[in-house]
What does this fold into?
Amino acid sequence: MNPLLIGLNAALSAGSTLSLVGHDPYMAYNFAVEIGGVVVGGFSEVSGLSSEIELEPYEEGGLNGYVHKFPKHTTYPNLILSRGLVNIDLFYIWYQATSQGLIQQLNGTILLLDDQQIPIMWWTFQNAYPVKWEGPQFKASSDEIAVERIELVHQGISKL
It folds into this structure.
């Protein structure tokens, strides 16, 4: 039997006997981002942390009640990282280099932290590089923090 299925069956059977009493969900605001081995924290938002399996429909002759759907491949949307604008402009420098053909692919990790700032769960992404940079929007009547966004294309996400 497939080791992945064995692990899935064990997790499901263990989960059915575990109680969720006293287990609060983790807070989404408590996270850090590491890219290329450097924690580049201070982000206010990370989006695009998902994947989807594309399906191939197959209509079987003589069978009109349903259409078979077979998995083709997995796709990943771009990651969008938002943070307050700071003096160190590493993301814009990385983006500028990429726009000039100097593509440097980096691996990274998004770490979910507990209330003591200890990583409890993380998602890794592979071979990322920037494809879009967005600077802050200025508005004289606003007291909001100036935010920049960097959009990264990558070759997959793994949850650890």
Q: What stands out?
A: Strands lie at 31-35, 38-39, 43-47, 52-58, 68-75, 79-84, 106-113, 119-134, 147-153, 157-159.
